[in-house]
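Hi all, long-time lurker, first post. I run a small reading group and we've been trying to get comfortable going from sequence to structure in the token notation. Rather than ask abstract questions, I figured I'd post a concrete chain and ask someone more experienced to write out its structure so we can walk through it together at our next meeting. Sequence below, copied exactly:
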Amino acid sequence: MEETDSPEDGIHRSGNYVQALERVVPDWIEWMDSRGVTTLEALDSRHLARYAGHLARRVNARRANGDAEGITPATAWNYYSLVSAYLHYCQQWEYIAENPADTDRAKDEMPDRPTTDSGQQQFWSQQQRETIVSYVDERAHDAIDADPRSREALTAARDRALVYVLGFSGVRGAEVLAASRDDRRTGITWADIDTDQEILTVLGKSQKVEKAPLTDRPVRALSRWQTLLDPPAETWPVFPSFHLASLREAARSQLQDRGVDTETIDTVTSLSTADLADAFRERDLTPPALTTEGGRYTLKKLSQEAAVDCSADPKDYLTLHGARRGVGEAYYDEAGFSDAQRALRHEDPSTTSKMYAHKEASELSDVGSEIFSSEE
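-- Answer (accepted) --
Happy to help. Here is the structure in token form:
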């Protein structure tokens, strides 16, 4: 089958999306080629139905015996959607007259779409939030009192600021941390924080720059963290990584780019974490940002150390997105649907509605109980 250029619909796709597209579409093309469909002109809905059936069989294989080639229903629909997006692009550029993936005939062969009960998703409760906040406060105070220049103090103060930002602002983890597969998401910098106005500037899910409410709770933790970190420039990440190998790699790369001699580079990159952080300041280097993977690991570790009760949650630790849902739930409970939607920056109200469907159903149940009580 002929390959055309990658889909370009005027929207800047995230790195994760592009990488998935570049992996899935060539695999699909190879699958179609092996079945004798070698041109776009020969493609019709029957061929997409067969592909959909192939995905359904992989889902069934996973369900039946844990087959290594098996996939989940969500993955199957993700693959199909990527292929459909590619064919939509081909249709736009008139390589084909219609998108054969966008037909009921083809989609009927797909497994049932996975459904998510909003009540089964994790929401940081007020108690969970205050438990982890209390723990990171105490941990940071103890580490800073012991030695404010130590790696332990730096890590504890950073983690405290991270928990506060996640727990009270409602931002997505990928909006404030670096995403390893998306070169646009490099973590927020100090230039992105306005503590006076209590606003964060982030790259939203929409791939547009957005303003997110910081609220007053994280301001003190961020201010103390900034004083301890002492970043020499606003371009420094708010949440740098203190993974020693990553710091050394970043220092080596930046010094090499400046033409610094090998002996000096070796000396700098042999330093311990705290001393290396000093070297980054003194030499006007920029440390790498903590990644979303690092953020998840940090929250898991902190949840365990703080003994946060996650027994009723689908995960046994507090998650990045659970923090966001918890913030939205607090807005929903105290200020209503509209403010929850605005705080979470959902362009489509249905997104907010789906997230809090369990609460809306519960509220309607209470209303119904009052309505029908007179009939008893």
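A couple of things your group might point at:
The longest helix spans residues 45-65.
Residues 121-241+291-347 form a domain with the hpI Integrase; Chain A fold (CATH 1.10.443.10).
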